[in-house]
Structure formats: C-alpha cells, structure tokens
Design goal:
By secondary structure, the protein is α+β, with helices and mostly antiparallel strands. The chain has seven helices and 21 strands.
Length: 405
C-alpha cells in the first residue's frame, strides 16, 4: 500500500509537469488519404542511383491504395530491386525535439544488394527501425532534434542505401513536437522501468488502474516501460483477465499504447515477444579536433556495418566546427555544396550543412571548447565514408574516413 501511494503521487506529479509535452504538427497528408495520381498529394518521389544499377536497374512502382490500416496507404513495389523514396518536406522549429511515428507492412521484401528494407527516414536525422520479409502492420518510431534546421524531409523508403525487391505499405504517419521533458517525467520513466523489470505486481497493477486518469505522456511512459521490461511468464497474482484491461483502457489508448499493452499481456501469458531492433545506441566513438591546425585528431574511425553508435564530437579548437558524414566518394560533392551554401548567406542558419542526398548525418555547429553527442546507424554496406567539417573554408583539409567493415 505504501508503494502504491508513492506510485500514484509520482504519476500525479509527472502528469502535471508534462501534460503539454506532445504537440501535433500540421504536416501535409501524413495519412495518405488524398491522392495526386500515383503519389500522395503534396509528396514527391526520388529514386537513388547506385553502381549496381548497371546490372540491376532501379525498377519500381508507387501508388495510393485503399487497403491501409485506416483508409488509404502508400504502396511501393519492385519486381527486381529498387532504392526509392516517396517524400514530403515539413517546416519545423529549430533546436526542437520531435517524434515521428508510423506503420509499415511488407510482403516478400528481399535484399538484392545492400540496403535496409522498408523504413521511414528523416533526412540527415536518422530512420525508424526497418521491416523486411513479410510482416503485418508494424508500428515504428524515431525521436530526433532539429538543431538549426527549419525544414525536414520525411521519406517512406524502399531499399535505402541499397536495393530491395517486394512490396511495402506505409500508413498513418504522425509527427509531434516534444517539449522539454521535466525532471518528474525522467523520474517517472525510471521508476516504471524498474517496476517492469522487477515484476513488482502491486505497483504495476496500481499504475494500470490509474492510467485512465492521467495524461497520454504518462500512459506512453508506463506502458512502453512495462512492455519492454516485464519478466516473461510472471503474471501478477491479483491481475484481472486480459480482456478486463483491454476494456478498462479502450477509450483512452491510442494505437501505439494499445500495441504496448498487448506486448505486456503477452509477457504475462508467457509468450515470446518479437525482438525489435534496439532503440538505444551501442558503443561510443570519440572524434576530436586539434588546436589551431584545422584538422581532426582522428583521421580514421573504424566501425562495424549495421551497428548503432554514439558519436561524441569534442571541439578542442578555438573556433567553431561541425562534422558531416557522407556517402563513399562524395567528399568533393559535399564540400562543393557547402561552399555554394556559404555563398548564399544562409549557411549559418543550416550550420553550414548542405541539404543533399550525399549527406548521411551531421552534427550541429559546435563552439570552441564544447562537445556534442548523437546516434548514428552505421550503413550495412562496407566502405570508406568521408567525415568533414563544412564550416566555410575547412573541408579541403579538415576531413577523415569513417571505415565501415
């Protein structure tokens, strides 16, 4: 009873502090309900060219179909292999954290040379987890911070850095702005994870019974923490049957929250919950600048294909620098685009990072003596990927290699 009282107080305090945390973004046609010929209205299409195209052409179709999760869906297919994205550009606030969610379904999605599969990209800000093979509708997400940018490109992608054949459907994308997460919310998430990992029956049941009376943000924290951490096969002795929880919470839960509840109930029943790609970054890789030399201290960083890393960029110089990672062989392409951007007078607003497909990811501009860390999903295709500083005049000598093995 004492523990339950503390859980209730924690939920009340956290809810009061983060009830305005989630702000939906008015982005164009994210549910694909409005079509313009074979594309969603307001969206474009961009195929990607790779050396393997000489023997395996980029063949694909895209259309709006009625068999979505709710109404229409975007369908992308390739009979032989393709790397193609259907995209929309969305205005955003600089230096703001957002959450992109969506649903992906696949059929016979097969790797034809590199690539990821079916994925939703936020250009230069990473991607959701990828779906391959044959899969029913699966919820995916990506949290990111915009840095200095005022516009992002969201892309429903078949292939991504390589070719896949088969069919992928995309539906019900949603973009929300996440305000500053309060200390109460951080504490709440930590407590919920410990309750879940420890299988603390009374505390968990108390939280579930209170979910109807709290905010969507708290419901997200509690259900996702329990679903990810509860010991498989350890059902609380005092728990009601599964349908009781479905009925009790039916009017309050959105689709991702219902999905998390079902995963929790699966764990209670002792069923194996499908393993998802990890959401947290793996090992940490350090990159530093030297003082007064316009050079990186490390000229080569070696990583493993497909791993997720946290890159820590420390600027030990006396002036600002950034780090931009590009596709193999694109050093001069990115550098030239950075020079052109600087000449427009708009470079500072974009941290001198050009918006071109050759850029995989980039840091913000880091002031002297400061550092930044960010997550990188390493490409699955081995090779030498250039990293450079695109601050005006730097890229020709301030560059190195991210070696993917």
């Amino acid at each position: 009873t004492h523990l339950n009282t503390h859980c209730d107080a924690l939920m009340e305090d956290a809810a009061a502090n983060i009830q305005r945390e989630v702000i939906p973004v008015d982005a164009p046609n994210l549910g694909f309900e409005v079509a313009a010929d074979d594309l969603p209205a307001g969206w474009g299409v961009e195929p990607f060219v790779w050396p393997l195209e000489e023997t395996n052409p980029n063949v694909y179709t895209h259309e709006i179909v009625p068999e979505g999760r709710t109404g229409n869906a975007l369908k992308i297919s390739s009979p032989t292999g393709a790397d193609v994205g259907v995209y929309v550009d969305v205005p955003v606030k600089p230096n703001t954290t957002y959450l992109l969610t969506g649903w992906i379904k696949t059929e016979n999605l097969e790797n034809m040379g590199g690539g990821y599969g079916a994925v939703i990209d936020i250009l230069t800000f990473g991607r959701t987890r990828t779906i391959r093979g044959t899969s029913d509708w699966t919820w995916v997400e990506r949290r990111f911070n915009t840095g200095p940018k005022e516009e992002i490109r969201i892309q429903c992608h078949l292939g991504r850095w390589g070719q896949y054949k088969g069919t992928a459907w995309f539906d019900d994308l949603r973009l929300v702005e996440l305000g500053d997460i309060s200390p109460s919310a951080v504490v709440a998430e930590t407590v919920f994870r410990h309750i879940g990992a420890g299988g603390l029956d009374q505390a968990a049941l108390s939280v579930l019974e209170q979910l109807n009376n709290t905010t969507p943000a708290i419901r997200d924290l509690a259900l996702s923490s329990f679903a990810e951490n509860w010991p498989t096969g350890q059902r609380p002795a005092a728990a009601a049957d599964d349908n009781a929880y479905r009925t009790m919470l039916a009017d309050k839960l959105d689709a991702p929250q219902k999905n998390a509840l079902e995963k929790l109930l699966q764990r209670w029943r002792g069923e194996t919950v499908p393993i998802e790609e990890p959401r947290t970054a793996g090992r940490t890789v350090l990159l530093q600048t030297e003082l007064n030399t316009l050079k990186f201290a490390q000229d080569t960083l070696t990583v493993q294909a497909g791993e997720e890393i946290t890159l820590v960029f420390e600027n030990l110089d006396a002036m600002p620098h950034n780090v931009v990672i590009g596709m193999p062989g694109t050093l001069e392409t990115i550098g030239g685009a950075a020079d052109a951007l600087a000449r427009t007078g708009q470079g500072a607003e974009q941290a001198y990072v050009p918006t071109i497909e050759s850029v995989l990811t980039a840091s913000p501009l880091v002031d002297a003596g400061k550092s930044v860390s960010f997550t990188i999903q390493v490409p699955t295709t081995p090779g030498d990927y250039p990293f450079i500083c695109t601050f005006p005049g730097h890229w020709r000598i301030m560059n190195g290699i991210l070696r993917v093995e």
